[in-house]
Design goal:
Blueprint (H helix, E strand, L loop, with lengths): L1 H13 L10 H7 L3 H30 L8 H23 L1 H7 L10 H12 L4 H30 L10 H15 L5 H5 L2
């Protein structure tokens, strides 16, 4: 149980895919303007990460690795993730049309979101078993959500601030993102010592 907690907390805080590994930056910068769209995108990413891990781990472990085809992991995983994102998009369009419209072009971008692909490849690289991989994917998704929600709050504060003209728009957004990222570096030694 302790091992699962360490994997979960590390994926959320220490090895945050957005703020530490700098994966998934496109939706992070594009959808984090409003809290509701940030939560919707994050929920979709969590769902796709866990589902992609559940689909890719067995394919890698039982089909590709035993047949010395591990070099096909990236290609196979991209195809699986693309199919899963299409499924999520169809479900959202049918049952959550307002959220589907607010996410716009960023929902199909989950297909090419390197955080989703990164979590599936990292599970194989770290040699996690199936349960550890699912916990890691869920933690990575929660970390993505945490980053999106925090940054949504930061961006809403920035909109009401008096910012010099040369920093308005993307420059102040990137500066704020770097400061939020630096704040997560403080968690680096805590997680391992927390569960001793």
């Amino acid at each position: 149980m302790k091992e699962f907690l360490i994997i979960l907390m590390s994926a959320i805080l220490v090895d945050n895919f957005v703020l530490s590994k700098f994966m998934g930056i496109c939706p992070f910068l594009g959808v984090s303007k409003k809290l509701d769209s940030a939560l919707g995108m994050s929920t979709a990413v969590i769902f796709v990460m866990v589902l992609a891990t559940a689909a890719t781990w067995p394919i890698s472990a039982f089909l590709l690795a035993p047949n010395d085809l591990s070099y096909l992991n990236t290609v196979a995983f991209i195809l699986i993730i693309a199919a899963l994102v299409q499924l999520v998009e169809i479900i959202m369009k049918k049952y959550l049309p307002a959220l589907h419209k607010s996410l716009g072009v960023y929902l199909p971008l989950i297909t090419t979101n390197c955080a989703v692909l990164g979590v599936t490849l990292l599970n194989i690289e770290e040699q996690y078993n199936f349960a550890q991989s699912i916990v890691h994917a869920f933690g990575a998704g929660l970390g993505f959500m945490l980053a999106m929600v925090l940054f949504s709050g930061v961006r809403s504060r920035l909109e009401g601030s008096n910012i010099p003209e040369s920093f308005k728009g993307m420059p102040i957004t990137l500066i704020a993102a770097s400061i939020v990222s630096i704040s997560f570096m403080g968690f680096s030694g805590i997680v391992e010592n927390l569960f001793r």
